[in-house]
Write a structure and sequence with these properties.
The chain has four helices and nine strands; from the N terminus they run H-E-E-E-E-E-E-H-E-E-H-E-H. With 160 residues, it is α+β, with helices and mostly antiparallel strands. The strands form two sheets. A seven-stranded antiparallel β-sheet has the order 1-4-5-6-9-7-8. Strands 2-3 form a two-stranded antiparallel ribbon. The termini are far apart. One of its GO terms (molecular function) is transferase activity.
Amino acid sequence: MINIKEVHEFINSIYENAENAYKKLSESEKIKCTYTICKGNYIKIGSEYRYQHYGIPIIVIEGVGDIGFNMDGIFFEFFLDRDELANMDFNEISNRHVEIYGAEDCSVDYYKIGDKLRNVKRKIEGSTENSFGIAFYYNSYDVDRDIIEEFMIVKKALKK
């Protein structure tokens, strides 16, 4: 039987983490961001992705990317055009749980954990996509640094 109290407390903790991160980000005059609840995401359960009919908190950082708070942890999502991605040093991201997928067809993975880095550029070159999503996933308890600090570090690594 599902323990409603535990489910409630777990979901509340997700939203509290998101709201606290948003408050901290919105205090900065240099960062423009919005807090939203977004439906239509996917969560990986076992080896398959499941559609989420329910909304999850997302912080949209204008001109930068998104910080999402899901049931399995936190994710950072950025979109890069073909040239930005082609010039990226993939070694910068190889030690992180990351996925690269099509912006138009998000069901096509160009890189996921376990793939060989040398194949990524070839897959991208063979794609008809003009831009790509890149998502970094963290178990919320595995983020050693402050969430916002980690987000900015990852963003800077993408622009090298």
